[in-house]
Amino acid sequence: MNERLARLDRAHIVHPHQVVGRPPPPLVIESGKGAVITDVDGNEYIDGTCGLWQCLVGHGREELADVAADQMRTLEFYASFWDYSNRPAIELAERLAGISPPGIGHVFFTNGGSEGTETAIKLARLAWSSAGQPDRNLILSRKMAYHGVGYGSLSATGIPPLKEGFGPLAEGFVHLTAPYPLRLPDCTETCIAELEETIERLGAGRIAAMIGEPVLGVAGMIPPPDDYWPRVAEVLGRHGILLIFDEIVTAYGRTGSWFAAERWGGIPADLIVTAKGLTSGYVPMGAVLIGDRVMELLDGTRFSHGFTYNGHPTGAAVALRNLEIIEREGLRERAVEMGDRLMAALREAEGLPAVAEVRGVGLMAGVELEEPGDGAELAARIRARGAIVRATGQKLVLSPPLVIEPAQIDRLAEIIVSELAATTVPA
Ligand SMILES: Cc1ncc(COP(=O)(O)O)c(C=O)c1O
Hints:
With 427 residues, the chain is α/β, with parallel strands linked by helices. It is 37% helix and 17% strand. The chain contains 13 helices and 15 strands. It has helices at residues 3-12, 50-53, 62-75, 87-99, 113-130, 151-156, 187-202, 228-239, 292-298, 313-328, 331-346, 375-384, 406-421; strands at residues 29-33, 36-39, 44-47, 104-110, 138-142, 173-176, 207-212, 242-246, 271-274, 286-291, 355-361, 364-369, 387-388, 390-392, 395-398. A 7-stranded mixed beta sheet has the order 4-10-9-8-7-5-6, sandwiched between helices. It has a 4-stranded mixed beta sheet with strand order 1-2-3-13. A 4-stranded antiparallel beta sheet has the order 11-12-15-14, covered by helices on one side.
């Protein structure tokens, strides 16, 4: 590893999710092309995760670099507060309204995911407040959920170690059981009974919204049973509770459609939070899609909220071209095709002693080890063989770029399956 860069990194950068003062040697990435990244020593890796699931169209697209450069030459940035606007943001908003599920026609731009979930939570609470129901402010979430790291989004998150030492968190969040079929028998029935009981106990008139990832991501890429979201939506609809879909991972093609909300016969989300894939990560940008019902509740109320870089023209120009590439190259269809190929190859690991389950949706896959499997150790072995996967506890999660080639999928799966075969199960 390039000694100078490694030394400077350890001397000066505090990395997310690392032990402060004890940094391990960094893997310094120099370049990327398609589904391959290269480190500063010239080692290549198949990118099985897109870093953090964002890079739908693959690395190193000159077209996106050119769009960003052109926009920067014309107008790099100007604020979108109050009555200021810019052409790329307006065109992107129109495009997003065009691809959004029925009943969604507005957008609030952000810089990323956590800001998006903060925004959605604030919109839901403000909507009820402006409708004369300020006490309707509780937010239902789920255990195992990941919604970000701001105080609101972290409060919605259901992963206790991520909250340790940061208290006090925001009030008014209630965590329900997550739909986790492998570990929860009668999964949908149990979750729905608990949801109904919770609404009964708290009172529907106190609950502003429920927030959930359509497919639990950080928790281990766990798709819910097919009847889970339709039944949750039915219960929420019956009680007038808003539904916030956190599609920060799933939006813009990863599951095979523009939004996961289009699955399961169509889930009528009131707010859809997106980020990552909106620009494929070329520029940090997110978008909260706002449904008509929320717009009606908010009608006439000032939304005193905004981030400096809202509606960033360069980000919006890149997002527009990124969406065009997804459409032009049929990447939603490709997500299904490559996802099926990856799943078929990974399923070969299912009978292995170390493997509890292989699962996935579109081009998202999860491998769960038998307890007390060590995902981090396994991911390190896989990386040493030239493929990047992410470990979360005893699970591996995969979300390669949608442009990944069949041969790269095969190689990725081959490395993973052979390392799983070499994994011993602790007594
Ligand atoms: C489902 C989900 N919600 C929210 C976030 C937070 O997004 P960001 O890291 O851009 O703030 C993430 C990030 O991985 C995510 O996966």
